[in-house]
Amino acid sequence: MILKKKLLKYGKIDFGNEYEALKTKKTVVVIGYNDKYIIAHDPTDKDNVKITKEDFLKQWENAYKQAITLSN
After folding, report:
1. Could you give the dihedral angle defined by the CA atoms of residues 14, 3, 42 and 69, in that order, rounded to the nearest 10 degrees?
2. Cβ neighbours of residue 2 under 8 Å, at least 6 residues apart?
């Protein structure tokens, strides 16, 4: 169980809905993938990053498998 005090408001996205993200974990936006890599936009880096699927899944597990999906 994640304690509420570990969360912070991430901001307003798209339709003005607020989302929360872990303060201690990095948040990235997945923009693509292939058999070996996840391609993500990292707001702390100027360029998109390429992460091995294995490393991405480890990091996602460490973030309690939190995810946000947006669709039209």
Report:
1. -40
2. 22, 64
Helix (H) or strand (E) segment spanning residue 27: none
pLDDT digits (tens, 9 = 90+) for 25-45: 678 889 999 999 999 988 877
User: Residue 33 corresponds to which tokens in the numbers above?
Assistant: 């993938």
Q: What are phi and psi of 37, to 5 degrees?
A: -130, 155
Smallest CA-to-CA distance from 64 within 27, 33, 34, 19 is with 27
Are the C-beta atoms of 23 and 67 separated by less than 8 Å?
no
pTM, entire model:
0.59
